[in-house]
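Entry 12.
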Amino acid sequence: MIEHDLLGNITVPDVRYYGAQTQRSLDLCRTSRETLECYPELIYCIAAIKKAYAQAHGSLGVLDSKTADCIARASLMIMNGEMAGEFPSDVICGGGCVNIHMNVNEVAAKKANELLTGHKGTDVIHPNTHVNKGQSTNDVIPAAIKLALYRNLTAVKKSVMVLKNAYEQKAEEYKDTVKVSRTCIQDAVPITFGQFWGAAVSFLGRQIEEMDSVMQECLALPLGATAVGTGLNLYEGTPELVLKSLTQTFGVEITQEHDLFDGLQYTDIYIRASSAIKAAMTGISKMARDLRFMSSGPRSGLGEIRIAPVQNGSSIMPGKVNPALPESMNVLSYLVIGMDAAVTAAAEGGELELNVWEAVIISELLRMTQILPDMIETFAKKCVKTIKVNIERCLKEAEDTLSSAAVISALKGYQIGTEAAQYAAARGLSLKEAAVACGCLSREEADDLLDPLMLTDVLKTGKLLLEYKDK
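Predicted 3D structure (tokens):
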């Protein structure tokens, strides 16, 4: 089929619903193999915007009712995935995402034309004249990205909540189980698993709150700005109807950005979204690394905990099992850090009235939010929930740590505390035995002050120190 656009005639396969502008972009950009089909959430959101505008224009009489209805029906078909395979445009392509936008416009137009007339084409319903009426790539694409980001962040947040719940269960299960803490990877004072994993719960709760905040920002859209913020070619009353329709589609209140010029020129929302995800993943990666260390062994490592095996750990060493799921979290974190850098650069690159680097935002930020939910949930369910603590080993290490001499120094002075620790180290004794043997503490004082579980309770420790001080 020969079709015509701004640059002249071009051949488009007869079986396709996309048109000349999409075909031209395919002839130009096939560099990444990362097509619009890779982002069904973005296709859905662009189509939802098309549906909303068609309905608004029908209500205002800007489009005749049959044309408006057919565009809305075609857009809904796109949203439902019925036109899958018709979105081959390469996301990694210049031109401010016009190719992506026009790919959807062309498919919607040809399908609407088919619904209205019985044949594909653009003779009655045109992608620019009708489907894109009152719109611009410059306001549709950022609006669609924000809506897609909202949907994806919803899934990311849910997965983080699953992980938070898994750590809450472990913190409760082992709330009174004591272990030795480590600072600079050296023995420190006793801590409970409840305290240790409680910190993870607190961290994850804070990340969920941050995601909630970013998600709310994603619901303020620059629709109505058209090309540069002036709303040129926009019919009066359209934005209100469009936003009402989108609110019904997405089930949350969607509003217009308070400054449409700002909405096109500045893209700091993408940085906040990316940073929120990066912050969460750096912490989750730390949790995963902790599990790797704590489960190391099984015979020559820390061996504080065991996690369920999920796959073979070696092609040459029989019986070896690696902490594959924690390491997957580390890998994801490194990827997110790199993606965040790309998002930051793209957001900084805005020029004059527009930021045209949204291809990077799609490729990095939307992809980032695509790949996280399943892996985070798998980590929670198949790793964190399987943790078993080696209680006896952890208790012995907590009793053996020389760093508990800190409580001796609090009562008797730093030098005496140091002497007790050195005495224990030189003779291979526990700190409690050494403190009594070298005369630093009485047996009663040692039993009371060097109980590792008691040392994890600041109120009990503080009260006991005050009692002994007054004796």
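Annotation: The longest helix spans residues 137-173. Strands lie at 2-5, 8-11, 178-183, 186-192, 220-221, 255-256, 305-306, 388-389.
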